[in-house]
Each structure stands twice: as C-alpha cells, then as structure tokens.
C-alpha cells in the first residue's frame, strides 16, 4: 500500500513533507482557499509532516506523487484528526463538538458521537485501534467504536490546569496529558495519575518516544 497524508484546508496554505533522515524537502502541497488545521499519517510512512492552520475540506493525498486520492465533505471546521493504526479508518472532531469516524476508502461517515458535557479539544486512536481517546479541558474520554459509546472517563484530579493535548504510550498502557504547567500520566486500566512537574510555562504539545521510555 502506498503512503497517504491527511490535511485540512480553509483559507490558503501549503504542506511540506520533509525526509526524517536527511531533512530534505520531498513534496509540497498547495491549495488555494484554505489553511491547514490538522495532519495525520498512517503508520507505514517514513516522512515527517509540516503544516499550517483552519477548515472546510478533509482530503487524502498520495505522498509520493502529490495526487489527490479522497475528498471528505460531510462536516464543518475540523481541528483534529487521527488514523486508526491499520489505516482503514479516520477519526475527526471539529466545531460541532462531534466525533466522526470515516471509512478511508469510501470517504463515508460510519459513526458520529456528540459529546454534551464538555468541548472536545483533541483526539487519537489507541495503538491497538480499539478506542478513540477524546480530550476535553478536564477529562480524557475513551470511546469504543464497536460499542458506540464512551467506555471510560479519566478525570483531571491532580492539578488545576486545563488539558491541551494528550498522547498514548506506544504500548497503549498509559496516556500522557499536557496542561498549563505539568504533565499528567494516566494508567489507562486503573485511572491512577502521576504528576510530572518541571515546566515554568504552558505546555503546548507532548509526545512519547517509540520505546515507551521518554516523554517530550
């Protein structure tokens, strides 16, 4: 299967793909009428993505040729997107505060879930593809597509900051969240929290190393 890239556009902007080994520019995608708000790769691609910012169209492009492969149109402003690890599904959230799960091949919406209790900020598929993690200001929600419902809520009990981003550990056992000044580490099975201090300002993003040993 050839590699794909997902991005959103609204006003005007472009995406540059840079090789992670030599940092050489591989492809640039430009689309009039939109700026890039969110990006995602399936697990089988070797490139690092750089993008911009806002939306009205989700599109899938082939990274090697720059050819448009799919066009998704059944939504408003989308600001977060995630591939299921097998590449067959895409999850997105946007201004309507609704999770949508798409079929990658047909560009059709398979499921929709609207969160009524809080605003959705971010999302990510679990490493095994069984759940979609939804991030609100004060909770992590785990949505199970097979059951079509929230199966777990992990509340922010350890600090006063609001969650901005969250990421699964590669083994799927933990979720690390970023907030104003601290990183909170959740045990997915038990909900137990560990607070990591050290920052003196707002944490804008967070990532796990592939070997599970480090958080950046």
Structural category is mainly beta
Average predicted local confidence, pLDDT: 76
Strand arrangement, major sheet: 4-1-6-7
The proportion of strand residues reads over 45%
How is the main sheet built? Answer: 4 strands, antiparallel
Shape: globular
Helix content: under 10%
Radius of gyration: 17 Å
End-to-end Cα distance, whole Å, is 31 Å
Number of helices: 0
Molecular structure report:
Helix content is 0%, strand content 46%. With 216 residues, it is an all-beta fold. The strands form five sheets. Strands 4-1-6-7 form a four-stranded antiparallel beta sheet, with no helix packed on it. Strands 8-9-10-11 form a four-stranded antiparallel beta sheet, with no helix packed on it. Strands 12-13-14-15 form a four-stranded antiparallel beta sheet, with no helix packed on it. The relative contact order is 0.11. The model is unreliable at 1-12 and 44-55 (pLDDT under 50).
Quick tags:
single chain; mainly beta
SSE diagram, text form:
Layout: E1 4-9, E2 13-19, E3 25-31, E4 39-40, E5 47-50, E6 57-62, E7 68-72, E8 78-83, E9 89-94, E10 98-103, E11 109-114, E12 122-125, E13 132-135, E14 139-144, E15 149-155, E16 165-168, E17 174-178, E18 183-187, E19 193-196
Antiparallel strand pairs: 1-4, 1-6, 2-3, 2-5, 6-7, 8-9, 9-10, 10-11, 12-13, 13-14, 14-15, 16-17, 17-18, 18-19
């Amino acid at each position: 299967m050839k590699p794909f890239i997902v991005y959103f556009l609204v006003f005007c902007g472009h995406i540059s793909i840079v090789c992670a080994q030599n940092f050489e520019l591989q492809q640039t995608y430009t689309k009039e009428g939109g700026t890039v708000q969110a990006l995602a790769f399936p697990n089988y691609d070797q490139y690092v993505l750089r993008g911009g910012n806002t939306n009205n169209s989700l599109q899938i492009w082939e990274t090697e040729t720059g050819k448009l492969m799919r066009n998704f149109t059944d939504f408003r402003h989308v600001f977060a997107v995630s591939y299921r690890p097998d590449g067959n599904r895409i999850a997105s959230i946007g201004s309507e505060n609704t999770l949508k799960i798409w079929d990658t091949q047909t560009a059709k919406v398979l499921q929709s879930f609207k969160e009524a209790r809080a605003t959705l900020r971010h999302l990510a598929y679990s490493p095994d593809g069984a759940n979609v993690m939804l991030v609100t200001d004060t909770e992590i929600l785990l949505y199970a597509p097979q059951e079509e419902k929230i199966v777990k809520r992990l509340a922010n009990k350890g600090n006063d900051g609001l969650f901005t981003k969250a990421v699964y550990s590669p083994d799927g056992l933990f979720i690390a969240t970023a907030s104003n000044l601290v990183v909170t580490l959740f045990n997915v099975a038990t909900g137990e929290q560990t607070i990591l201090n050290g920052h003196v300002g707002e944490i804008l993003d967070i990532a796990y190393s592939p070997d599970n040993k480090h958080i950046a």
